[in-house]
Amino acid sequence: IASNEVATKPDFGIKILAELESELGINPQTSADELKIAFMKLRELPYLRTFILEATRYQAIVSGVFRETTKDLTLNGRHISKGWSVSVSLKQTMLESVFPSDKVAS
Question: Higher confidence at residue 79 or residue 57?
Fold first, then answer.
Protein backbone atom coordinates (compact mmCIF):
# COMPACT_ATOMS: atom_id res chain seq x y z
CA ILE A 1 0.00 0.00 0.00
CA ALA A 2 2.51 2.57 1.14
CA SER A 3 5.06 1.50 -1.48
CA ASN A 4 2.58 2.41 -4.22
CA GLU A 5 2.23 5.91 -2.77
CA VAL A 6 6.02 6.33 -2.62
CA ALA A 7 6.37 5.05 -6.19
CA THR A 8 3.73 7.39 -7.58
CA LYS A 9 4.62 10.41 -5.44
CA PRO A 10 8.41 10.55 -5.02
CA ASP A 11 8.26 13.56 -2.67
CA PHE A 12 6.95 11.22 0.03
CA GLY A 13 9.95 8.90 -0.34
CA ILE A 14 12.40 11.79 -0.27
CA LYS A 15 10.87 13.18 2.94
CA ILE A 16 10.79 9.73 4.57
CA LEU A 17 14.45 9.06 3.71
CA ALA A 18 15.43 12.51 4.99
CA GLU A 19 13.61 11.85 8.27
CA LEU A 20 15.24 8.43 8.67
CA GLU A 21 18.66 9.93 8.15
CA SER A 22 18.20 13.02 10.30
CA GLU A 23 16.41 11.33 13.20
CA LEU A 24 17.98 7.86 13.24
CA GLY A 25 21.18 8.27 11.25
CA ILE A 26 20.06 5.62 8.74
CA ASN A 27 21.75 5.77 5.34
CA PRO A 28 22.86 3.23 2.70
CA GLN A 29 25.99 2.42 4.76
CA THR A 30 24.10 1.64 7.99
CA SER A 31 25.01 -1.79 9.41
CA ALA A 32 22.45 -4.52 10.13
CA ASP A 33 22.95 -4.16 13.89
CA GLU A 34 22.37 -0.42 13.70
CA LEU A 35 19.22 -1.04 11.65
CA LYS A 36 17.85 -3.36 14.35
CA ILE A 37 18.21 -0.60 16.95
CA ALA A 38 16.75 1.99 14.59
CA PHE A 39 13.76 -0.24 13.79
CA MET A 40 12.62 -0.02 17.42
CA LYS A 41 12.52 3.78 17.13
CA LEU A 42 10.42 4.01 13.95
CA ARG A 43 7.28 4.94 15.91
CA GLU A 44 9.02 8.12 17.00
CA LEU A 45 9.18 9.46 13.43
CA PRO A 46 6.20 11.79 12.93
CA TYR A 47 6.31 12.08 9.12
CA LEU A 48 6.72 8.34 8.54
CA ARG A 49 3.98 7.50 11.05
CA THR A 50 1.57 10.01 9.48
CA PHE A 51 2.39 8.71 6.00
CA ILE A 52 1.66 5.09 6.96
CA LEU A 53 -1.59 5.98 8.73
CA GLU A 54 -2.77 8.05 5.78
CA ALA A 55 -1.79 5.36 3.24
CA THR A 56 -3.75 2.71 5.15
CA ARG A 57 -6.71 5.06 5.49
CA TYR A 58 -6.75 5.80 1.79
CA GLN A 59 -6.10 2.23 0.67
CA ALA A 60 -7.86 0.07 3.25
CA ILE A 61 -6.35 -3.37 3.75
CA VAL A 62 -9.83 -4.87 4.15
CA SER A 63 -12.25 -3.75 1.46
CA GLY A 64 -15.43 -4.13 3.46
CA VAL A 65 -17.40 -5.85 6.19
CA PHE A 66 -20.83 -7.45 6.45
CA ARG A 67 -23.22 -6.51 9.20
CA GLU A 68 -26.80 -7.42 10.10
CA THR A 69 -29.22 -4.59 10.76
CA THR A 70 -30.63 -4.50 14.30
CA LYS A 71 -33.72 -2.45 13.44
CA ASP A 72 -35.72 -1.21 10.46
CA LEU A 73 -34.25 1.93 8.94
CA THR A 74 -34.33 4.16 5.90
CA LEU A 75 -31.02 5.09 4.29
CA ASN A 76 -30.90 7.45 1.32
CA GLY A 77 -34.60 6.87 0.74
CA ARG A 78 -34.34 3.06 0.73
CA HIS A 79 -36.01 0.90 3.37
CA ILE A 80 -33.76 -1.68 5.04
CA SER A 81 -35.54 -4.21 7.25
CA LYS A 82 -34.26 -5.48 10.59
CA GLY A 83 -32.16 -8.62 10.08
CA TRP A 84 -30.96 -7.82 6.57
CA SER A 85 -27.29 -8.36 5.79
CA VAL A 86 -25.59 -5.22 4.56
CA SER A 87 -22.11 -4.67 3.17
CA VAL A 88 -20.10 -1.65 4.27
CA SER A 89 -17.30 -0.50 1.95
CA LEU A 90 -14.46 0.57 4.23
CA LYS A 91 -12.61 2.22 1.36
CA GLN A 92 -15.59 4.45 0.62
CA THR A 93 -16.03 5.44 4.27
CA MET A 94 -12.40 6.51 4.48
CA LEU A 95 -12.55 8.93 1.53
CA GLU A 96 -12.42 12.66 2.16
CA SER A 97 -15.40 13.15 -0.18
CA VAL A 98 -17.56 10.95 2.06
CA PHE A 99 -16.43 12.31 5.43
CA PRO A 100 -14.66 15.68 4.96
CA SER A 101 -12.03 16.28 7.66
CA ASP A 102 -13.67 19.55 8.69
CA LYS A 103 -16.83 17.58 9.58
CA VAL A 104 -15.15 14.81 11.60
CA ALA A 105 -14.89 15.17 15.38
CA SER A 106 -11.35 15.03 16.73
Answer: 79
State pLDDT tens for residues 61-85.
777 889 899 999 998 889 999 999 9
Name the amino acid, one letter, at 11: D
For helices 46-58 and 10-24, give the axis angle rounded to 10 degrees: 150
Using CA of residue 51, residue 55, residue 61, residue 64, what is the dihedral sign? positive
Q: Does the structure show a pLDDT above 70 at 41?
A: yes
Nearest by Cα to 94 from 50, 41, 57: 57
6 vs 8: CA distance, rounded Å: 6
**Averaged pLDDT score across all residues of the chain:** 78
Long-range contacts of 85-90 (CB under 8 A, 24+ apart): 88/64, 89/63, 89/64, 90/60, 90/62, 90/63, 90/64, 90/65
